[in-house]
Amino acid sequence: MESTPTDRETTTRGFPVLPGAQRTGQDGGLAPEAPPRPAAAPQEQDRAYFVIGQWRGGGDVDIWHVEEAPADPGERSDRCDEHREAADDAFGSVEIVYATSPEAAAERARREARATSERIHRETDRP
User: Fold this and answer.
1) Which are the contacts of 53, defined by CB distance < 8 A and separation ≥ 6?
2) How is 101-115 classified by DSSP, letter by letter?
3) How far is CA 63 from the centre of its chain?
4) For the whole model, what pTM was predicted?
């Protein structure tokens, strides 16, 4: 005759017994893995965006278009090549910028353009 597990054997402190759990502790109860931590509010993660536009000089950038880039690296590369071909015809460029939103990607592209311009000016002004 098969014995059915008691409630004590199927759960420990309200958690289901996980396969491979070992008996531990003074009471000989099963020790399940620690319960998962409560989910915190989801954090916004940086995603890749195509920022398409034209560098006007200095830190000035005309941004024509921003769109989220595909997550797949191969697809991202193909889409980037397509955008670059179109941008080259209009003397523009395509940058991949990581940000939490399209607006943040555009702002980051402008900051990076200003920083690049400042660095170029510092390097050319050196004796």
Assistant:
1) 61, 62, 63, 64, 65, 92, 93, 109
2) SHHHHHHHHHHHHHH
3) 23
4) 0.60
Roughly how many angstroms between the first and final C-alpha of the chain, as a whole number?
94
Nearest one of 108, 88, 111 to 47, comparing CA atoms: 108
Q: Are residues 31 and 59 in the same domain?
A: no
Is residue 77 located within the same domain as residue 113? yes
pLDDT score at 18: 44
Single out the residue of 93, 88, 108 nearest to residue 55, CA to CA. 93
Alpha carbon 83 to its chain centroid, in Å, reads 22
Number of domains in the chain: 2
Rounded distance between C-alpha atoms, residue 24 and residue 46, angstroms: 43
Per-residue pLDDT of 30-57, as tens digits, reads: 444 555 555 554 557 899 999 999 988 7
Strand partners, 23: 30
Look up the domain containing 83 and give its range. 47-125
Range list of H helices, 14-93: 73-89
Q: What are the structure tokens assigned to 115, written together?
A: 């920083």
Tens digits of residue pLDDT in 9-22:
444 444 444 444 44
